[in-house]
Amino acid sequence: MHDDSSQESPRIGALHTTLARHIARRCEHSGEWPTPIPALSFFRMEWPTPPFVCLVEPSVVLVVQGKKQMLMGGASYAYDTRRFLITSLDLPASSQVIEASPEQPCLGLVLKLDLRMMAELIAQDGLPPPHERTAQSMGLGTITPRLLEPFTRLLALLDESDAIAVLAPLIQREIHYRLLLSDQAARLWQIAAVGSQGYRIARVIDWLKVNYAAPLRIDELAARVQMSRSSLHHYFRQLTAMSPLQYQKWLRLNEARRLMLSEDLDAASAAFQVGYESPSQFSREYSRLFGAPPRRDVAGLRREAEHVPAARK
């Protein structure tokens, strides 16, 4: 069922105005802003930005003013007030603000998805499986009033703090339900349906995130999720646009970057801590990913943080 097309656009505009008002008064300047609802955060950016590397968690992202894009595996996903971004796995990507100004900042929200809740909803009788199939874990969905309405109620709860613990989970469940009825349902079913290949790849990613510094033994990992070696490689690349080894390398390099930036480790120490045996190999692969050797990259990040504190948030 769809809303009447003659009424949908004005209704969407009104809902975006309400959401933008909620977000703007809680985001004083550019950056990411947590909220008292653990799975919900806001963002505000006042200028377009170059792409910056990030790990995108399973989430739905709404832009209520401005425009952003996500770059992953050679593909770009531009989203604005007409389209939402959805990600069903933890995916290495690059995020970029395309349209923003101090007068009209890019405003939006991120809601982390609860795949356990999604699986429970799928298991309930009466929820129809999607007819189409998809081979990707990131996509763009069509904004509808029925999706935006529970978001406005979720944000309104921020003015009623005593009710958050009771009502927020109920509204979040409704949002998950609406997503399972959206044009992005197939993307969510492939990950949340227990026993599916996507579900197994999600378990592989969970293991890699915890054990990124350990040697990667594909045969053991495949056995852990009851897949063949070839199936693991095939579905992992299909869903993440990289191999398990490339994914582990991405995790290692980003953790090393964090250690150098936040804990002041030198490049060799950071390399060994994340599982590299050769500092020279670490430096080559680091330069390939971030565009500069470790020391120069970290120095540039620190200079940038001094002059524009929230620019990369």
Automatic annotation (TrEMBL):
What does the record give under GO molecular function? Answer: DNA-binding transcription factor activity; sequence-specific DNA binding
Keyword hit for DNA-binding: yes
PROSITE patterns linked: HTH_ARAC_FAMILY_2 (PS01124)
User: Where do the HTH araC/xylS-type domain residues begin and end?
Assistant: 202-300
Pfam families (alphabetical): AraC_N, HTH_18
The family database entries (InterPro entries) matched by this protein are listed as:
Homeodomain-like_sf, HTH_AraC, Tscrpt_reg_HTH_AraC_N
- Gene3D superfamilies noted in UniProt: Homeodomain-like (1.10.10.60)
Which keywords appear in this protein's UniProt record, sorted alphabetically? DNA-binding, Transcription, Transcription regulation
User: At the top level of its lineage, which domain of life is listed?
Assistant: Bacteria
Key word Zinc present? no
- Please report the name of this protein according to its UniProt entry: AraC-like DNA-binding protein
